[in-house]
Amino acid sequence: MSERTNINCLVAESPATADFNRQMEQEAHQALVRPLEQVASSRVLVVGGGVAGQQAALDVAALGLPVTLAEAGPSIGGVMAQLDKTFPTNDCAMCILSPRMLEISRNPRIEILTMTRLRGMRPGLPRPDAGPP
Questions:
Q1: Exposed/middle/buried for 70, CB within 10 Å: 0-12, 13-18, 19+?
Q2: How do residues 84-97 score in pLDDT, each as one tens digit?
Q3: Which end of the chain has fewer surrounding CB within 10 Å, N or C?
Q4: What is the arithmetic mean of pLDDT over 18-26?
Q5: Residue 64 contacts residue 108 (beta carbons within 8 Å)
Q6: CA 30/CA 48 separation, integer angstroms
Q7: pLDDT of amino acid 127
Q8: Helix, strand, coil % over all residues of the chain, rounded to 5
Q9: How far from the centroid of its chain's Cα atoms is residue 6's Cα?
Q10: Rounded to an integer, what distance in angstroms lies between the CA atom of residue 47 and that of residue 99?
Q11: How far is CA 17 from CA 8, 14, 20, 24, in A?
């Protein structure tokens, strides 16, 4: 006969372990987040004008950096712009997208390029090589 037993243990974290964990978290955070002065480029390219690309462009512009939002299609909005309702709230898709699209179009730090595909990127270029499809 075998019986499964669940054993829950509480392990107290020693002060040395807590300090080590805190230091590791800080180092990981510093590796991912760099001050704006250390960003290599003065302009950010966001590829894709869907809801995620739109939010990324707004977030970067809010940090004070100019943004180019490149979309392969004739308009930003992505697949969400083609939907009637969204899951799980059954909200109107354009009711969510329209205010964001208006905010992007009015933001002087965001440049929108539609009908644009990224042909390639090379180190050392001031801007990625983007052009018509």
A1: buried
A2: 888 888 888 888 88
A3: N
A4: 68
A5: no
A6: 28
A7: 53
A8: 40, 15, 45
A9: 41
A10: 20
A11: 20, 5, 5, 10
pLDDT in tens, 52-69: 999 999 988 988 889 999
SS3 label, residue 113: strand
Query: Max alpha carbon distance in the chain (Å)?
Result: 72
Q: How are beta strands 117-120 and 67-70 bridged, if at all?
A: unpaired
Helical residues (DSSP H) of 8-111, grouped into ranges: 15-32, 51-62, 93-106
SS3 76: coil
Q: Which of 72, 54, 53 is nearest to 131 (CA)?
A: 72
Strand partners, 68: 45, 111
Residue tagged 């009711």 (tokens): 95
pLDDT top residue among 127 and 41: 41
